[in-house]
């Protein structure tokens, strides 16, 4: 191999502009605009940005796949280890750059684990003995040595992504590009991949330059030396994780989801005028402990904080204090309206009684599940992959029928009612929007379901218009759904199910592929639906979302319901979560670490910030905080 | 680059085409083995629909590869290994010819391709049944009946399918075209 | 759960260990012979031999029975339809107007059915004991262009994936109120949305797969190496030589001396 010119950075973007080739007579779509960026040898660069910001295109450009495999219009240049990516053939670039994509299925080309890792070096004509050495090493790094003869089709999502990383490592690149490698994984798989990257970092240190594209900013803040935020194809923010993630308002405006610890710091800083900043939980715990100790608080926990504290008295009405049960200062969505809900004692929409189900009559998936879902409930279904979440959800609309036990949907037994009939009551939006888009315009896509149910004419038009409006898609009504970005396709798919006007809406990972802004908008829409009396069943791995929005959490593990209750009860029960192999929220863990200062378990950043502030006020009688009595 | 002899010539596909052909092999396999629909007088599988789809949208090369390998794997994996050699040739030819006639074509050329493909399918299996397997006149005729159903549904369903996909997903029209990039005018 | 798409049964028998190229060549030879034969006893012997070899290779009985079950309708069809078109021979067992069933015709039908079964089981010796990796590898070593071998590998790997996509897409459409008519062209027509969505999804995957291939160096202008190349052991050469000698001798007997060409 010819060596890289000394002083040449591994990656250099020079006013790089890229527009995708036009489709169907439309104008070329600009993906990157005047990007200038250098990545130093051994650097760990984190890249984030809203959907459509150009972050995936950036990955393709480093590997030369843009523009060589995509076509399109190019301005400026990308130089990788001295090679211009426009003119260096992709296979040659592959000796220096390895890429791992988001979709585990599209990362693998071989039949077995070993084949997969050997494939790259084989294509480069490396001698077999050397390939064998590399395969051993690469599988060792990602922890798949013991799986080397398995078929890759039999691996879990996390294993597949680790395998993809090993396959790339075996080509011994100087640069590793990871394009949202954990976006489609469950928390367990995600941790596996993170551990593999950590291991890699230890093993190779500064000999490997890593570019990690992520929308999970919490992950980025843990690893990256530097963060670049893209927006509309341009570099919008750049700097150290500490610097970038302290600019929470700018990030929010760019559609980025703020890491929870950064959000917490920002809230405290706003209230205290301080300059706190934490990237890791340990750091946050230490800093908050110092802060709480400064105020001379006793470490005893005999004086629980009281509710009703407010930074600016009488500025805005405080929700009725409810700490009597929860001990928290702020209320979660689950605690705001459950009073009315319980008062109503809703009629059951879904009644599952001791349902059992085995796939193919062999593989047990549900082992006796009983669950009732009432009208107007907002329920989150959580649990690791393979726990039975999806199987359970599919029982709610008759896609699967219990082998024993029974499922009633609005009183109809699913064993005797057709799925098409149940679709009037239960709408099910699948995780991958591409699995349901098949019409040439957004409006037609939305009309398809209601038409199946017999709607015609003005009634149908009104239904479609309302759905378009509600999900903010009115301007896209004549666009091709399949040509929209992933985030918008997701919204169209959900809107298409909503257009059926179901009484229960099941959403499988609806925020996967959505950025912070879109997630916020979608959740607001869902809250509206709940307020109007529809029920929502949210299947998600995102516990932050669950804490903020769900009113009830059902934890599933090995085909059984392990826990069922309000988010505060389930999500603060670390032992329970651990039994299902799930890690608690960062904030929940942090608040537990601070319990010796009288901080009660918190689930959201807002809640923990308020708790800390209240504790500080209790300790010093800080001027800004008034001390009225508790709720009596 | 690595040491090694430069290999030129021979049969080579671009990575894009390799991936496409591979995925279409799987699509044809699944359509043949796993998607079956009862019709009066028996059932049809969707294999021929998938082959015509590959030929009409991606041309003779991908059509021939998916046509030859997809159904052959289906035969081999289901115990009908006795038909595999015939299937390889017949469906491969069907995909090739349908692609030569109906690639990126309008309704009538696709219909013609479906007709010619049907003749290859029905005739091919009759010849294979009668002269190679020597299963007897009766069974060979029964197979003609089955393949007529395949040929007819294949042509009738694949054409609207191709038209629908073209409409829904316009990038498909230039899927197999060579990708070229241009410098932005400054 | 991909087991249903594959007749291969893992194992460590001599048949499993035999070089896949040798296995392919010898089964092709055997298949050719079986195709040429019409002799009831000879075909019966061939079928018995195939089963014996499968048993020695500890091939699971369940899978073998599955093959019989799949073949059964075809075999029954052959046996029942044969006499309708073949009225040669004695004794006449049944004469119903134009329909004359003779004992010889029945036996011929049976022999034909046996030929089909023997053919399938001969090929099962190869398919049932050769995993997909070795299969593709042997084809490439026997001259299949690498591009096609790669496409075949991707095809095999993608089968369970696409089957899953199709399944999920159908469910997604049912959940949107699609009710498929039970049969016929109307059912096929109603399936169009499912096919469209599944195909577009598959195409998106194929695009990324293509990028992955390019980024793993496919098309690099160097001679490809292989980590595990097939290598003929002495036992493989021996099996090839012995098998070919026996096969060619039988072929000569068949073509020149008429071995097995007659019914009995």
Automatic annotation (TrEMBL), chain A:
InterPro entries: AAA+_ATPase, ABC_transporter-like_ATP-bd, ABC_transporter-like_CS, ABC_transpr_CbiO/EcfA_su, ECF_ABC_transporter_ATP-bd, P-loop_NTPase. It is found in: Cell membrane. Keywords: ATP-binding, Cell membrane, Membrane, Nucleotide-binding, Translocase, Transport. Residues 296-322 are annotated as: Disordered. GO terms for molecular function: ATP binding; ATP hydrolysis activity; ATPase-coupled transmembrane transporter activity. SMART domains: AAA (SM00382). GO terms for cellular component: ATP-binding cassette (ABC) transporter complex. The keyword Transmembrane helix does not apply. Residues 11-257, 350-583 form the ABC transporter domain. The keyword Nucleotide-binding applies. Its main location: membrane. Signal peptide: none annotated. Belongs to the ABC transporter superfamily. This is Energy-coupling factor transporter ATPase. The lineage of its organism: Bacteria, Pseudomonadati, Thermomicrobiota, Thermomicrobia, Thermomicrobiales.
TrEMBL record, chain B:
Keywords: Membrane, Transmembrane, Transmembrane helix. GO terms for cellular component: membrane. Pfam families: ECF-ribofla_trS. Coiled coil: none annotated. InterPro entries: ECF_substrate-spec-like. The chain crosses the membrane at residues 17-37, 49-71, 83-103, 110-128, 148-169. It comes from the Bacteria. This is ECF transporter S component.
Automatic annotation (TrEMBL), chain C:
InterPro entries: ABC/ECF_trnsptr_transmembrane, ECF_transporter_component. Keywords: Cell membrane, Membrane, Transmembrane, Transmembrane helix. The chain crosses the membrane at residues 24-54, 66-85, 105-127, 139-159, 237-255. It is found in: Membrane. It comes from the Bacteria. One of its GO terms (cellular component) is plasma membrane. CDD domains: EcfT. It is a multi-pass membrane protein. PANTHER family: SLL0384 PROTEIN. This is Energy-coupling factor transporter transmembrane protein EcfT. It comes from Thermalbibacter longus.
């Amino acid at each position: 191999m010819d060596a890289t010119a000394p002083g040449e950075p591994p990656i250099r973007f020079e006013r790089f502009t890229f527009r995708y080739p036009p489709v169907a007579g439309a104008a070329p779509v600009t993906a990157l605009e005047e990007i200038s960026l250098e990545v130093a040898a051994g650097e760990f660069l984190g890249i984030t940005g809203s959907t459509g910001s150009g972050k995936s295109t950036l990955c393709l450009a480093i590997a030369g796949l843009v523009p060589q495999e995509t076509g399109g219009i190019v301005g400026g240049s990308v130089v990788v280890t001295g090679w211009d990516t426009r003119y260096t053939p992709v296979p040659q670039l592959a000796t220096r750059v390895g890429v791992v994509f988001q979709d585990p299925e599209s990362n693998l080309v071989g039949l077995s684990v070993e084949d997969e890792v050997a494939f790259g070096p084989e294509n480069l004509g490396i001698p077999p003995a050397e390939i064998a050495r590399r395969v051993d090493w690469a599988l060792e790094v990602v922890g798949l040595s013991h799986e080397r003869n398995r078929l890759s089709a039999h691996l879990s999502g996390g294993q597949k992504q680790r395998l993809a990383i090993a396959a790339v490592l075996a080509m011994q690149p100087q640069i590793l590009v990871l394009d949202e490698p954990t976006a489609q994984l469950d928390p367990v798989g995600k941790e596996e991949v993170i551990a593999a990257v950590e291991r890699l970092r230890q093993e190779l240190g500064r000999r490997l330059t890593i570019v990690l594209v992520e929308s999970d900013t919490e992950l980025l803040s843990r690893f990256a030396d530097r963060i670049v935020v893209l927006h509309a194809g341009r570099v919008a923010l750049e700097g150290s994780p500490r610097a970038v993630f302290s600019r929470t308002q700018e990030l929010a405006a760019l559609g980025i989801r703020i890491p929870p610890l950064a959000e917490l710091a920002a809230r405290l800083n706003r209230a205290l005028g301080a300059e706190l900043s934490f990237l890791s939980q340990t750091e946050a715990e230490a800093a908050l402990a110092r802060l709480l100790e400064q105020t001379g608080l006793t470490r005893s926990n005999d004086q629980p904080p009281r509710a009703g504290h407010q930074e600016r008295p009488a500025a805005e009405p405080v929700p009725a204090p409810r700490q009597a049960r929860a001990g928290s200062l702020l209320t979660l969505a689950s605690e705001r309206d459950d009073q009315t809900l319980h008062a109503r004692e809703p009629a059951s929409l879904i009644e599952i009684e001791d349902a059992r189900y085995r796939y193919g009559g062999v593989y047990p998936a549900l082992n006796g599940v009983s669950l009732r879902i009432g009208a107007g409930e907002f329920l989150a279904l959580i649990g690791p992959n393979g726990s039975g979440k999806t199987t359970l959800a599919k029982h709610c609309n008759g896609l699967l029928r219990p082998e024993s036990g029974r499922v009633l949907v609005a009183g109809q037994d699913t064993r005797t009612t057709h799925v098409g009939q149940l679709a009037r009551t239960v709408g099910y939006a699948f995780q991958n929007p591409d699995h349901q888009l098949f019409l040439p315009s957004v409006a037609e896509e939305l009309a398809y379901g209601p038409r199946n149910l017999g709607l015609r004419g003005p009634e149908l038009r009104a239904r479609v218009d309302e759905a378009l409006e509600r999900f903010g898609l009115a301007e896209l009504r004549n666009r091709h759904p399949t040509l929209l970005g992933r985030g918008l396709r997701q919204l169209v798919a959900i809107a298409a199910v909503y257009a059926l006007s179901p009484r229960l809406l099941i959403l499988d990972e609806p925020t996967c592929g959505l950025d912070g802004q879109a997630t916020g908008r979608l959740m607001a829409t869902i809250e509206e639906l709940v307020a109007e009396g529809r029920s929502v069943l949210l299947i998600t791995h995102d516990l932050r979302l669950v804490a903020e929005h769900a009113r009830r959490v059902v934890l599933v593990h090995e085909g059984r319901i392990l826990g069922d209750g309000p988010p505060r009860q389930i999500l603060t029960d670390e032992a329970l979560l651990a039994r299902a192999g799930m890690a608690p929220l960062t904030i929940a863990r942090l608040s537990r670490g601070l319990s010796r200062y009288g901080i009660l378990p918190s689930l959201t950043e807002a809640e923990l910030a308020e708790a800390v502030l209240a504790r500080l006020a209790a300790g010093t009688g800080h001027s800004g905080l008034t001390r009225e009595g508790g709720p009596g | 680059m690595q040491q090694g002899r430069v290999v030129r010539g021979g049969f080579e596909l671009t990575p894009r085409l390799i991936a496409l052909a591979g995925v279409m092999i799987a699509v044809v396999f699944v359509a043949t083995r796993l998607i079956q629909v009862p019709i009066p007088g028996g059932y049809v599988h969707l294999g021929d629909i998938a082959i015509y789809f590959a030929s009409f949208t991606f041309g003779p090369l991908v059509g021939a590869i998916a046509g030859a390998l997809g159904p052959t794997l289906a035969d081999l994996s289901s115990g009908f290994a006795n038909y595999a050699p015939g299937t390889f040739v017949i469906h491969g030819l069907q995909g090739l010819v349908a692609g030569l006639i109906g690639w990126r074509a309008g309704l009538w050329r696709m219909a013609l391709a479906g007709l010619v493909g049907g003749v290859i399918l029905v005739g091919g299996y009759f010849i294979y049944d009668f002269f190679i397997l020597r299963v007897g006149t009766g069974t060979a005729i029964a197979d003609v009946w089955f393949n007529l159903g395949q040929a007819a549904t294949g042509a009738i369903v694949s054409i609207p399918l191709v038209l629908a996909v073209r409409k829904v997903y316009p990038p498909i029209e230039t899927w197999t075209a060579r990708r070229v990039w241009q410098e932005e005018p400054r | 759960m991909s087991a249903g798409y594959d007749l291969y049964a893992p194992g460590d028998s001599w048949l499993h260990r035999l070089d896949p190229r040798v296995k392919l060549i010898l089964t092709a030879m055997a298949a050719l012979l079986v195709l040429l034969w019409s002799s009831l006893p000879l075909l019966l012997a061939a079928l018995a031999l195939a089963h014996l070899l499968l048993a020695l290779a500890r091939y699971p009985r369940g899978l073998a029975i599955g093959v019989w079950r799949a073949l059964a309708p075809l075999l029954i069809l052959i046996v029942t339809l044969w006499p309708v078109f073949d009225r040669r021979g004695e004794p006449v067992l049944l004469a119903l107007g134009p329909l004359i069933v003779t004992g010889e015709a029945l036996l011929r039908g049976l022999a034909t059915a046996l030929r089909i079964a023997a053919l399938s089981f001969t090929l099962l010796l190869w398919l049932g004991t050769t995993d997909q990796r070795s299969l593709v590898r042997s084809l490439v070593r026997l001259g299949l262009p690498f591009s096609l071998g790669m496409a075949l590998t991707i095809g095999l790997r993608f089968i369970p994936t696409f089957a899953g996509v199709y399944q999920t897409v159908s469910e997604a459409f049912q959940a949107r109120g699609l009710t498929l008519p039970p049969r016929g062209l109307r059912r096929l027509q109603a399936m169009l949305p499912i096919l469209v969505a599944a195909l577009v999804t598959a195409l998106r995957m194929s695009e990324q797969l293509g990028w992955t291939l390019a980024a793993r160096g496919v098309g690099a202008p160097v001679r490809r190496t292989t980590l595990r190349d097939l290598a003929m052991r002495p036992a493989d050469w021996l099996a090839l030589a012995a098998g070919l000698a026996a096969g060619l001798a039988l072929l000569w007997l068949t073509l020149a001396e008429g071995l097995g060409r007659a019914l009995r």
